[in-house]
Amino acid sequence: MRYFFFIAAFFLSGLLCAQEQPNTIPVHDPVMIKQDSIYYLFCTGRGISVWSSKDMLNWKRERPVFDTLPWAVQTIKGFRNHIWAPDISFHNGLYYLYYSVSAFGKNTSCIGVATNKTLHPSSPDFKWTDHGKVIQSVPGRDMWNAIDPNLAMDEKGIPWLVFGSFWNGMKLVKLNGDLRSVARPEKWFTVAARPRNFILPDSVAGDAAIEAPFIFKRNNYYYLFVSFDYCCRGEKSNYKIMVGRSEKIEGPYTDRDGVPMNTGGGSLVLEGDKNWHGVGHNAVVSFNGTDYLVFHGYDAKDKGRSKLRIEKINWLNEWPVVTINSN
């Protein structure tokens, strides 16, 4: 879940001049893509925060994606253009940016999508076109939360959207070829979940702390990464990255011990240490034959502020192995 004290942090950071920053720039829920020789980073923030880099080390702040989002203002009570957990990918000649708008601490949430021909702000073709709502969750109707989207393609090139936070887990649903709507007949898969106290009303998230799903295809497996436990608490955050895998995109995903992720399974990929707390909400990217884990962590040396982390993924017996660089 996301907490509102980050709204102020992102707003203040946006007032800084757009100078190059070290690789520990202040971000939350990062996802990365490369166009030509430029890396672009999208993350939670007012209007969706954007950064660019030529080397993944020094970053320049770009203009946010949205100035306003009228449909979200009308749909989500109290929405103030603070947009969560974007996901970026390139398909059919367009960049697709999925994003989350939500009420705090409730499953009153929506996932929207916008497209652009290019990510280069200097290009005459640069223009974000918002297509509005793709999926919505409603308290009293849905026991899932429509945030933290990630677009994944199966071996046939069919698009799927995985998403979710708390409640009864991570959901997966097939999309139409336009990547902007759910395919019919609708069929929803629960690909990961943790036990939840169902005595609680569905308007309360409870203790089933799991979110931020991301699917990465490698060789014969789809790998489902999720984050367990709690972010957004600075040095007290105990967020950690877990994984399972499946030969089919719809699952079932199982961990190293064969425990299904939809019954609470998951193998540890990465957790915090004395320098970096609450590491989580990851994406996986591949550049020049190398796989990277992109995530945020809370810097113990800087009052627990959330910052960008990028670590190389090694693979051992077809399972991801990642170590935090102490720098």
Structural features, described:
The chain is mainly β and 327 residues long. It contains two helices and 22 strands. The chain has helices spanning 5-14, 70-75, and strands at residues 31-35, 38-43, 45-46, 49-53, 59-62, 82-91, 94-102, 109-116, 129-137, 150-153, 159-163, 170-174, 188-192, 210-218, 221-228, 240-246, 267-271, 276-287, 290-299, 305-312, 314-316, 319-321. The strands form six sheets. A five-stranded antiparallel β-sheet has the order 3-6-7-8-9. A four-stranded antiparallel β-sheet has the order 1-2-4-5, with no helix packed on it. A four-stranded antiparallel β-sheet has the order 10-11-12-13, with no helix packed on it. A hairpin with a 2-residue loop joins strand 6 (82-91) and strand 7 (94-102). The two termini are 27 Å apart. The model is unreliable at 1-22 (pLDDT under 50).
Give the SSE layout.
Blueprint: H1 5-14, E1 31-35, E2 38-43, E3 45-46, E4 49-53, E5 59-62, H2 70-75, E6 82-91, E7 94-102, E8 109-116, E9 129-137, E10 150-153, E11 159-163, E12 170-174, E13 188-192, E14 210-218, E15 221-228, E16 240-246, E17 267-271, E18 276-287, E19 290-299, E20 305-312, E21 314-316, E22 319-321
Antiparallel strand pairs: 1-2, 2-4, 3-6, 4-5, 6-7, 7-8, 8-9, 10-11, 11-12, 12-13, 14-15, 15-16, 16-17, 18-19, 19-20, 21-22
